[in-house]
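Session log. Operator J.P. requested a structure for one protein chain; no other inputs attached. Running the standard single-chain path with token output.
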Amino acid sequence: MKHLILYIIGIAMLFGCHTTKKTQTEEQTAVKVLFDADSAYLFCQQQCDFGPRTMNSEAHEQCAQWIAQKFAQYGYQVTLQKADLKGYDGTILKSSNIIATAPAAGDSGAVANRLLVCAHWDSRPWADNDPDSANWHKPVMAANDGASGVAVMLELARQLQQHDSTNVAVDFVCFDAEDWGVPQWSNQSDADSWALGAQYWAANCPQFVAKNYRYAILLDMVGGQGAKFYHEGFSLEHARPVVDKIWKAASAAGYGSFFPSQPGGYVTDDHVPVNEKAHIPCVDIINHYPECPQSNFGPTWHTVNDDMQHLDRNTLKAVGQTLIQLIYSE
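Structure written below.
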């Protein structure tokens, strides 16, 4: 999510002007299962209570165990995929991808009978986009940029345990070491320094596992105030039908205003290796603020203000209910 490449204006106009008229067969009925935004907000708070979950810190290790325990509590088989990964500056990062596998749904022998939902759970170690340069070397609490995606996944897991009448199984992966990318104050440049945990997971995902997934969804910064979620460029390239599914589900759930059917640019994020290395069509649901002067990722991105005071339950609800609509409509 750290590099945004804007579409040229002509392409933006082309995609932005398509019709939104639906045929009767495309209409969905809103599902009755309700996503609990208060519960998701609490899951954000509980992660932040550990402090910034920066790589190699005690808070990082404690939070990993907590996340794993919560998924296990909701009936998931949990695996910690540990790896020593090298950061852009040579630092060895003690990484843990948290993999939560659901019991089989429907025909357990069916191919592509699973969905994958993922998010990163680590915190940015440097608030390098903060307007105050005195904060550039301070860690980010990462209430939105990290905790919000995990919180939505935990609440989905809780709801799926309570309302298990789905035709698909839903697995979750919490990617680590996403946010150790080259800081803006560094004179180095390395696009591959981002999404290290996702790169490792995708490179080591067995083909027979990858083929079990119809598609994947990445959640990144899904709780910010005033957030909206535009079509992301790599998602359109690799998984356009899934983009259409998600945005239709948002409309059916009553949250279409949060999901404009307009392009938001290309973003280097965890979904790129999932698409290109694991070959699972993956869509990035990521906030986009086209009018924000500080960053297209919003005013708190990589600042010390990415805290609980700048989260919005309405945004968590919009994303969570959209995914509930999607899952129970499969």
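Operator note: The longest strand covers residues 77-86.
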